[in-house]
Specification:
Oligomer: single chain
Bound molecules: NADP nicotinamide-adenine-dinucleotide phosphate
Largest sheet: 7 strands, mixed
Number of domains: 2
């Protein structure tokens, strides 16, 4: 049986791996379908302390991983379907495989939210609809694209896409951006970015080959329907926590975020099960706060194992 298994290799999981590794707990880190987590799809991380010039997300996660490995963290690919608790033993099921541990840190992060409008699913991944400008932006060189959303992610995606695309239309359902002031100002000042305010996306329209040709929106102020011609539709409307596998086991809120036990940020309703990062935090959701929670959960694990 393992002392500690960490689920996830984003900022929270890898920081927990560094701390538990350094505490000589020999952590086993299980990584799912997105090694490195959400930052690997971010172009530039400008606000992580210690990187005055900024650092690209992929490089940062690669460094965290190497740092965790240096302290003995072991990595294995496994997507956990469910967790069973038997006394102080946690049994993790992944396909036909099982893992056992005394303590588990859940740091499974969150995935991009989708709109659920006609055409979205049909054209997702390769036919014009995507949630990742860093991954797919270069495919839309010299083309017109739309970005949906009004938060920091939408602004970041829009700004990144100006490197490749001829025109970026930001579609937002309100008349002000929710993004931080600096991101909003950069976005609104960019000559390649046009904002369509008060617009709810209704459908992604396809051309005769099944590729995106336009985004259809409904204006909330006039009720008019509008077609915005574009070859790419980048959806940046927030995230859904990856916590389905703890349904019925741990307390979760209405949006699926794991509820921490009272008086703690990283302890859950079950002893020996801890949670860190974007699967539990719906307020801050930053790389630095996820890393902080990874650190907290590792220290809690150390104490909990010592008591055990
Ligand atoms: P977010 O702040 O929750 O923003 C989501 C945006 O999508 C909102 O503008 C929301 O509209 C819109 N939206 C949600 N559902 C929609 C729907 N069904 N149809 C149309 N629009 C919809 O999410 P985020 O931008 O991903 O940011 C998440 C967190 O990460 C934030 O704390 C953010 O500061 C942080 N972040 C930081 C950086 C950075 O510092 N560089 C980069 C990315 C993210 P409403 O405004 O009407 O609710």
């Amino acid at each position: 049986m393992e002392d500690i298994i960490i689920l996830g290799t984003g900022c929270a999981g890898l920081t927990a791996a560094i701390y538990t590794g350094r505490a000589q707990l020999n952590p086993l880190v299980l990584e799912g379908s997105q090694p490195g987590g959400q930052l690997t799809t971010t172009s530039e991380v400008e606000n992580f302390p210690g990187f005055p010039e900024g650092i690209d997300g992929y490089t940062m996660m690669d460094r965290l991983r190497k740092q965790a490995a240096r302290f003995g963290a072991r990595f294995e690919h496994a997507k956990i379907d469910s967790i069973e608790v038997n006394g102080t033993t946690k049994i993790l099921h992944a396909g036909g495989k099982t893992f056992e541990a005394k303590a588990v840190i859940i740091a499974t992060g969150a995935r991009p939210r989708l709109l659920g409008i006609p055409g979205e699913k049909e054209m997702y991944g390769g036919k014009g609809v995507t949630t990742c400008a860093t991954c797919d932006g270069a495919f839309y060189r010299d083309m017109d694209v739309t970005v949906i959303g009004g938060g920091d992610s939408a602004c970041e995606e829009a700004l990144f896409l100006t490197r490749f695309c001829s025109k970026v239309t930001l579609v937002h359902r309100r008349d002000t951006l929710r993004a931080s002031k600096i991101m909003a100002e950069r976005t609104l000042a960019h000559e390649k970015i046009e904002v369509v305010w008060n617009a709810n996306p209704e459908a992604v329209l396809a051309d005769e080959s099944g590729n995106a040709r336009a985004l259809q929106v409904q204006k909330t102020d006039t009720g008019d329907s509008l077609e915005i011609p574009c070859k790419g539709v980048f959806i940046a409307i927030g995230h859904i926590p990856n916590t389905d596998f703890v349904e019925g086991l741990l307390d979760r809120d209405d949006n699926g975020y794991i509820d921490p036990a009272s008086g703690s940020q990283v302890r859950t309703s079950l002893p020996g099960l801890f949670a860190a990062g974007d699967c539990v935090d719906h307020v801050y959701r930053q790389a630095i706060t996820a890393a902080g929670m990874g650190c907290q959960s590792a220290i809690e694990v150390e104490r909990w194992l010592a008591e055990l």
